Amino acid sequence: MAGGKVIDVDHIGVSVSDMAQARRFFEALGAEVTPDYLYDDPKIAKIVGIDGVQNRICLATLHGKNFELLQYVQPVGQQANNHRPCDPGHLHIALQVENIEGMTERMREHGFEPANPVQHNPTGSPLSANYCYGFDGLVFELIELEAS
Prior knowledge:
Blueprint: E1 12-15, H1 19-28, E2 32-33, E3 37-39, H2 43-48, E4 54-62, E5 65-74, E6 93-96, H3 100-109, E7 113-114, E8 119-120, E9 127-133, E10 139-145
Parallel strand pairs: 1-5, 6-10
Antiparallel strand pairs: 2-4, 3-4, 4-5, 7-9, 8-9, 9-10
């Protein structure tokens, strides 16, 4: 059996079509967002497996979780991910929030439409949740835990 073990999650990478839009969105969520810069070191091509890659990159940190925002300059991306939650490869980011109704409205103001009204106690558990769909196929799930 091979060795090694996961000791932590370093970051979550999100490829975006518009860095300014992505930065504004994460800032609206309360993330600390670093300035973006052009990363064109040839070593990145070996990491991602794409020759001649160049991207704009920044880091958005939200409650100690790092999101690496990447806008590829070369090669230009093809299309946004339009997977449905039931499709293989679908990915969503779940955020625990306070005032889920208010956060749902904030998401809407930034271009993320809820799939449905907030679902309260959907599984009989003390939580409320909903999915919000936005730019580039990015999906956020909002979860609010009821106080016990």
